[in-house]
Specification:
The structure holds two protein chains of two kinds.
Chain A (H helix, E strand, L loop, with lengths): L1 E3 L10
Chain B lengths: L1 E5 L3 H10 L5 E7 L2 E7 L5 E8 L5 E4 L3 E6 H8 L7 E6 L6 E7 L6 E7 L17 E6 H12 L4 E6 L3 E7 L4 E7 L11 E4 L3 E6 H7 L8 E6 L5 E7 L3 E7 L2 E3 L1
Antiparallel strand pairs in B: 1-5, 1-7, 2-3, 2-6, 3-4, 4-18, 7-8, 8-9, 10-14, 10-16, 11-12, 11-15, 12-13, 16-17, 17-18
The chains are: A mainly beta, B mainly beta.
Chain lengths: ~15, ~260
């Protein structure tokens, strides 16, 4: 099965 | 003083309808260049980046940079009080305002209404979105994309998008069974119902349908939608807003365990 990743693991907080 | 006018309220109504179900609140960053909004949905799976450039407004004045914390459901309620053909003016004092006014003027000047909305303090982080050379960029009719996301969501929660030079394929499966929609690249690239694919290398990605069905709320804004994909990074779904801006939705992929 596939797990939902989070957008914050791709776009870093400024 | 911040003051921005649009000749037609319709475009702003569509913008609010495009984000109000995905986001609860967001900071509207107003500068000389225009209005920018960037916010994640509550589950931090998707990110919306909206830009309305100042030169697309009938009148635009922003004496000092201004950030307005907006409850989007409230703003959508106010926008729904306007008629599509009304002129809309947004006004706020620029020294840390706690409210913003919306003035709607009917085209025959016989009806002027104004609504004042309280602003909120929203301490949301801004995220850095890296510039990306995508492996596949697909342009297709926005109504077609909305139809596929809606239809296939009945068969499964996840949508597999695979793109090659032949075309783009949307697949799903679930208890009911499975479904596939394949779109071939069209020959006549400049028609509105064209499907065009710029491919550097083939990709296959899996996404949660429910977020895609939030993104397609932006369909009334543009007859075309652009999907940008590379393996293992967020999908970018982009709708142009007339010639004044665009709304970009980023969706984190589902990764096989």
């Amino acid at each position: 099965s596939s797990k939902q990743s989070s957008i914050t693991s791709f776009f870093k907080r400024k | 003083m911040f003051e921005a006018s649009l000749a037609q309220s319709a475009i702003l109504k569509k913008v609010l309808d495009a984000i109000k179900d995905l986001l609860n609140e967001a900071n509207f960053e107003c500068t000389d260049d225009g209005i920018k909004v960037q916010a994640m949905d509550n589950s931090h799976v998707s990110l919306v980046s909206l830009e309305l450039r100042s030169d697309g407004f009938e009148k635009y004045r922003c004496d000092r940079n201004l950030s307005m914390g907006v409850n989007l459901a409230s703003m959508a309620k106010i926008m729904r009080c306007s008629s599509n053909s009304d002129k809309v003016t947004i006004k706020a004092q620029d020294d840390n305002p706690d409210k913003v006014s919306f003035i709607f003027e009917s085209s025959n000047q016989e009806r002027i209404s104004d609504y004042e909305m309280k602003l909120m303090d929203i301490d949301a982080d801004q995220l850095g979105i890296p510039d990306t050379e995508y492996s596949c960029v697909v342009k297709m009719p926005s109504a077609e994309f909305a139809r596929i996301c809606k239809d296939l969501n009945q068969f499964g929660e996840s949508l597999v998008i695979s793109c090659s030079k032949e075309g783009i394929k949307f697949s799903t499966s679930g208890d009911l069974g499975s479904a596939n929609v394949k779109l071939a690249q069209t020959t006549d690239a400049d028609k509105d119902d064209a499907v065009t694919i710029e491919m550097r290398s083939p990709v296959t990605l899996t996404f949660a349908c429910r977020y895609l069905n939030h993104f397609t709320k932006a369909t009334p804004l543009s007859s075309q939608v652009q999907l940008s994909m590379s393996d293992e990074i967020p999908l970018l779904v982009e709708y142009r807003i007339g010639d004044m801006g665009c709304i970009k939705y980023y969706l984190a992929p589902k990764i096989d365990d």
